[in-house]
Fold these 3 entries.
Entry 1:
Amino acid sequence: MGVSAKDILSGDIQAAARLMRDLDDEIPSAHRTLKTLYRHTGRAYLLGITGAPGSGKSTLVDCLTGHLRQEGKTVGIVAIDPTSPFSGGAILGDRIRMQKHTLDDGVFIRSLATRGHLGGLSKSTLDIVNVMDAMGKDVVIIETVGVGQDEVEIVKVVHTNLVLVVPGLGDDIQALKAGILEIADIFVVNKYDREGADRTKQELETMVSMNTYGEGEWVPPVMATVAQTGTGVHELLAEVARHWKFVSREENLKRYRTEKAKVELMEILKKKLIEKAVDDLSRSGVLDLLLRDIARKHLDPYSVADKVVDHKFAFHLRKESGKGKANRKNRP
Amino acid sequence: MGVSAKDILSGDIQAAARLMRDLDDEIPSAHRTLKTLYRHTGRAYLLGITGAPGSGKSTLVDCLTGHLRQEGKTVGIVAIDPTSPFSGGAILGDRIRMQKHTLDDGVFIRSLATRGHLGGLSKSTLDIVNVMDAMGKDVVIIETVGVGQDEVEIVKVVHTNLVLVVPGLGDDIQALKAGILEIADIFVVNKYDREGADRTKQELETMVSMNTYGEGEWVPPVMATVAQTGTGVHELLAEVARHWKFVSREENLKRYRTEKAKVELMEILKKKLIEKAVDDLSRSGVLDLLLRDIARKHLDPYSVADKVVDHKFAFHLRKESGKGKANRKNRP
């Protein structure tokens, strides 16, 4: 028996954890439950926190979670940074600090590194966010390193994304320039007590000011925090609330929801299309032949992919066998 | 006029740089050239270097490149770490140090962060590696952060992958355990002059010793380096050479080539399948309708993806229009 949608909707933590495991294991009933749950999603506020390992993301998540809990809000945390204490990484002190939340029923933490994959961390991030949303979590915080296309896609589905920058990395800001503006709703210069913090803040402000924003467009503010001591977190939360209000405007919400639908559909579609193609090719025994020929450089993978996409393989094989090559299939 | 395969095969750096730009811009003639070039690939030795930002990857790449150049070997470098000096990131000192290689004709450096995308860094990594291979580079070094599925896929196509670990991150090793063994041919504890280096080395060795290896399987050695001063790099190169010899054995090479063919085909196929699906859906105007209905929670993206994969949309729309909904397409 799989996990029922009803159990998830009632907020059952055990059931949610099991459903997430089942989704990882690709159990069909779990996918059916997810389909049913989908129409109950869209109520949670999704907050992204992006920053390099060591930028203090988890300390900030810890801080924000504390504040949200005080306001009586329930929180879901999805960590896809392998060095995050939420994922089992980081130093012992961090982990002990997090314990207070792991023991709090109002906080549901799910790490995407626990399954032992270095890659594929974001494989089912959207699914997990949707389960937490359907569970009734008021806020779902998604912690990402911000590297790789997958993570950038995930950032597109959050209502508000905080980008953490550590002081003294001026050149990095240059390097990330174009990409970073694309994904930041609010910049946070964390560890603001460090040397060079002012300069970093100024550089970010200059970067923002040099960008062109249309009327009614959001201009990302640059905030300063020391998450370790809580300095600046109150002000940061005020900006988050301001952005929340901005996103909640009818016209923005409509655009956001369509964008989210697009990212979700594309992510799921990508996965299913390649699965189907591999299934089809494997079942007919074509895949092994193709790989052998590519490995031998008799074929190139670009042309093969073109043919697969255009469903030309039945024809291709027929033609070859017509030339007396029917027997080339030499698998056991 | 596009770049000809002949220009690339002659090792023309200008032509190669232009072809890579054209590939990024998705210019059709560039893809045709790539198809032609494919059969000339497979001669370069592909060396991966994976490690978190700050683990000293680029200093090590610098060191190794110097050694390889002294041996008269030409080198290609592909950097997909946005904080790497090869990608324009990192501190000024690093960048100046790299200059000696950028001025060397025998070294071709291509950064995948220069196009300003925070994500999508690895979009065409394999294409770029193939171009460098076809150019006749003896060794192509691929620098990755090792986060995300894309990067793990790329690591699968290298002959030898070095995984850099920084001392004092004991807990991180625990977190990465399963994934890290999967992708490491050689472990390198870099910054070995730091406190806790011995312990980190021991932990890695214990981890390796607890893993089960079959007969004739490679057991990853754990090396210690201080790339900054060059300490241990000679010994590391000896291990790289030993692994190179191991990979070059007939049975291993065959397996490697098939695996590489598979990763290449899958990466290209994934991209083309989703492009085709989006094209088809967009052209018929179905995509906008679907996204609207998903955004409104009238449909769930999981069921929609199933239908797209099974090509059920022509039928679906016909049925709907039969019910008098032919006019529901309300796009401009």
Entry 2:
Amino acid sequence: MGSARPSSPGPLPMTSPDPAQRPGEFELIAKLFAPLARDAQGAFGLTDDVAVLGPRPGMDVVLKCDSLIESVHFLRDDAAATISRKALRRALSDLAAKGARPCAYLLALALPRWPDMAWLDAFAGGLAADQAEFGISLIGGETDATPGPITITVTAIGHVSRGALIRRNGARPGDLVFVTGTIGDAGAGLALLKDGACAPSEEARNFLLARYRVPIPRLAFGRGLCGLATAAIDISDGLVADLGHIAETSGVRIEIVAGRVPLSAALREFGGEAPRTVLMAAGAGDDYEIAFTAPASEMEAILDLARRTITPVAVIGSVLPGSGVAMLDGTGQEIPIGRKGYMHF
Amino acid sequence: MGSARPSSPGPLPMTSPDPAQRPGEFELIAKLFAPLARDAQGAFGLTDDVAVLGPRPGMDVVLKCDSLIESVHFLRDDAAATISRKALRRALSDLAAKGARPCAYLLALALPRWPDMAWLDAFAGGLAADQAEFGISLIGGETDATPGPITITVTAIGHVSRGALIRRNGARPGDLVFVTGTIGDAGAGLALLKDGACAPSEEARNFLLARYRVPIPRLAFGRGLCGLATAAIDISDGLVADLGHIAETSGVRIEIVAGRVPLSAALREFGGEAPRTVLMAAGAGDDYEIAFTAPASEMEAILDLARRTITPVAVIGSVLPGSGVAMLDGTGQEIPIGRKGYMHF
């Protein structure tokens, strides 16, 4: 873990421990974060300034950095272990959609004064659990004091066979449009937290909250898509918005059929009447499912991949000449789409 | 530039443009940041989810992430172009001290509402200038809204010949201790800003402020140190603190001679009587010079490297068996050292 000397002009404490009864920076790194780097050769036990990644013959290195900010991307009341896992999984999800296999990550953690050792222990515990699940290690990073919200920046690092990365720009007219998992669950989970909306059952509520708090990066499925998919993206801004990114970058039009957008039983319980729920789901974000395009000739291979990786996958539409994204009803009529996704500003 | 969908539970604006008269996120990326990625093959013009780094035969990939936070590491009044350059250069300085050659970086930018387009233009302009100076490109990143301070996280990416990275842990008894440039200038520059302390001359003041605001990563010199230095670190926490990291990781004692610590003419003007100024300089941070150890047998090669790269270098002490860092006066007596550097908490 690097040490960046803060030339603090501000009111932050210059000594340790601070009022939150935390140990100092170096002790914190040694106690909480060095164990997460124990098994990674190029991490040097977080006792050096940088991390090193050995070359893998025939492989490209894939990099993605992604920030999670308190009160923007998570709530202070969220469990620390789900906050750290979400920060990590969001970045892993980008690698998944590109067909890359993650191997390591860097962590930059800006901490205000309030998180105490119990919070930090749980935060690191979430990372440890996900490292074991995904076979990755922390290899470097940075901790800093901040007068603002907790800000967690993960740089995920992975590999993909040279040239095999699945881009956004390869969709071609005639391709089919696919999506993994179910759409809109995380958006409903956030609505439950924000608006206190009631889900019809405790089971549905728990499912939707879990989908919001701990997304599932579709890593094994994504890796299998190399050579099958012509374009792919992980759904973070929302199904329609992210398909829009593929349409724009590929120079094509994408049409999806509302009735084919996969919705969970919990979301149907929560959202009621189907068409309205589909529109909400397709405009919400944070799904971290993979939307992708592929020729119909790859259908069997894709279904086989879905079976092998136990990943639900659905065909929801097709690629045409033109531009933009449209949603059609059962009769082929276009359904007006409102807000198409989230912009950060 | 990735788009991480903010599942905003907070009070942030959900639409664009915002009150600061900035364009929306995607337009901002296209206008300001995509040009910074134009020349980098694996950046895809910031139109995809990840960045890709092609393998370089025989080279290791070196990674360092580092955050710069408003009111912690810089002042809001600082010029935007120097803020972005400092964020970039701090991470490059770590690569320099390890002997690595930078090639690219990722940028995660958390922005509150106040920076307007003029500020953002200047911020990107600073990055463009440094990209040209150091031969690197932006290859990916992330922008997010934040209710807190501007938080800039740079992940610097470089290469070093396989196994040639200069670690912290190789210092051996008998080695000499070296440092590049001059020490304490940035600390004095910060003191001028914080305390309104007066420098004796406008020239000295400008020099010290420039050293605080825009550090110089010693990249060419650092690359030349591969095979010469036994251990190295960039001085961010302070000369004594950072030599302490080498001493601890290498399992040695380091003794430096106060009169040999190189001080700039401006710092001597600012700090007055020499011994007190040396102590201040050795405890201040943000120097981003390289402190390193090497056998005396490499002295000629090091001086030759210094000449070729036009880098001032000084011998300031030696490595002994034992532990810790001591500062000696001209008679070999130990000078008591107070606070040994900065901890972030």
Entry 3:
Amino acid sequence: MTIFSRDEYEQRVQATKQRMEQQGLDTLIVTDPANINYLTGYDGWSFYVPQAIIVSLILSEPLWVGREQDSNGARLTCWMSESTIKPYADYYVQSVVRHPMDYVAQVVRGYGLDHGRIGVEMDAYYFSALSFHKLVQGLPDARFADATLLVNWIRLIKSDQEVALIKQAAAIVTRAMGTAMDVIRTGVRECDAAAEILRAQIQGTEEIGGDYPAIVPLIPSGVRTGTAHLSWIDRRYEPGDTVNIEIAGCVRRYHCPLARSAVIGVPSPQLIELSQVVAEGVTAALDVVKPGSLAEDVEAAWQKVIQHYGYHKASRLGYAVGLNYPPDWGEHTVSLRAGDMSELQPNMVFHLIAGMWLDGYGLEISETFRVVPEGVEVLTGTERKLFVLEEPQALCS
Amino acid sequence: MTIFSRDEYEQRVQATKQRMEQQGLDTLIVTDPANINYLTGYDGWSFYVPQAIIVSLILSEPLWVGREQDSNGARLTCWMSESTIKPYADYYVQSVVRHPMDYVAQVVRGYGLDHGRIGVEMDAYYFSALSFHKLVQGLPDARFADATLLVNWIRLIKSDQEVALIKQAAAIVTRAMGTAMDVIRTGVRECDAAAEILRAQIQGTEEIGGDYPAIVPLIPSGVRTGTAHLSWIDRRYEPGDTVNIEIAGCVRRYHCPLARSAVIGVPSPQLIELSQVVAEGVTAALDVVKPGSLAEDVEAAWQKVIQHYGYHKASRLGYAVGLNYPPDWGEHTVSLRAGDMSELQPNMVFHLIAGMWLDGYGLEISETFRVVPEGVEVLTGTERKLFVLEEPQALCS
């Protein structure tokens, strides 16, 4: 029932244990849902209650700790044996007297792992300040160390099977972006456009269905394009609107994001110029991608182009992407920005997003790419341009 | 541009300040995205980076602290004046040398609020262990107190305008559940059914568009109905499958959840019996709802019925619901379960979900209800039964 072979999961756990040894950790308590999935296969919308994977140098398989009503989900989706499934009773859930991390601590003690050095993901989603406090209380003999991103860094280089899933996600996002360009028209409500886009994301292709992306379609229009993370409202599109469309295809939790901007009717000369600069900058950045280039080199190539034309972008140009859960499809490891000296290696996958959010207007062109021995493989083929969605005469109807 | 009047937001902030005074807090740092929205109107898919609202007894308006590229979103959605918008630079984002909470601490210091007693939401989503650690480091003169759920408890009793939004969400979920019952058929892929359900959730009604619900459709089928939180896969429905459908309508972030189970073809006698018991139990529980009843009374009425028939359910029967963001639409305050002595009051809204997750099969019937002076107002009218989706003869085709 697992997505990958037992071998692949065991290699991932082995790589985790190697890093644990390097960092002097005896035990690792993993709470990031993507890292839990990566190491065990576990998949379920249960990350709204505390759950954890316990990896120990002296245990051959990770232990799964989660809510009792999700334990059958663990049995259906994890590769490990039945004895590793450690469900907690429902009275731990959203209680003022008990906390699920009390139970995690109990499991750690039960395996005699409470005297060593324990890594926790201090800055992971869903690992609350109280979760940590409860672990510290429940494991007084342990020493804690911050192991945020320990597993994320292993995820940075994808296996060929992971790349294959991201390519299926690329086919889905290509289709969904086509749907967006077909449905966004004067008079249509933003919510109705969003509904069709989401439908295309989830239907997927004939070969493979779409999973829910970690972020909903971000499709601000008009004045709302001047900011990065607004979703849709009820507003009807008007002639002259710019619409930013940032979406992803998702297959088995693996993402391929893609962003484009469109204008309904006649774009302003200002927006046409911006789109040409951004497209040129993106192409220049992609030209730099090859094994051995640094993450900051990619961003520098982009900056050179846009600064030549007098533009400025303070925010990073992109980030590593792949397996994830809400609220983010980014992996939080390598960023394409000044100062990030990470060396690009084959089978790293990035979302390069040239988003310009200016006062009252904005524009986005992005590409998801894979580093390959020869240089770069861009995963989607959507034209790198500002889309114009209605012929001028349509505005007069 | 705000959803509610300035008066309503100011009342909410006033109620928050009252509770702060009762708990001896000078300042409250709010990080739960639903609480941020509740107090300021702020809406955006930006909770994947740290953000906060600072409420102080000596400030008339809350301060918004978030990422620079989201500050225009704050200007578009918040009620406060421009001077309360405190954006942090992009180099704080996913950096190993800086943390956004360093900047939050700086803002707190800048307003001279760092010598008092500061409440933080220790167990809120997106308030990581590291976020707290950074605040403690950055505010050495402050004393910290756990204020988890302080704002959530204010949210428990809805205004009439909030109820009106939940009723619009009820119309949407009714429609989306109808879509589910129309599209789930032998041979259809789960992902294709999910796509149509999501489309209906987002399209909404002619009057109002749907917002993204805080949880994706949970629609396990077959053996996967034995657990609570699986979404869809590529699997094609087969004759005899049971499908659990747990979805919500969402309007302006206000939710109305609804769950039903369906069977494709002929239900087993076991499942028919279970559905009748569950429906009877839900009705008995709703009959107890009125101002002055306790949360645990509602659950006790349910238990009495199912135990009479020899069934058992350990997990809670429901929870307060309303405004929320992923990963949960529940408010984390009152639960319908033994030991919860909260008194029901008018304009509380609950999702009562009778989910039975047994080995290899399961069933769900839920209702979202509002407490009214006369007793209970059930917000949707979907029949309280197991849905049978194909006539027996269809199985022979």
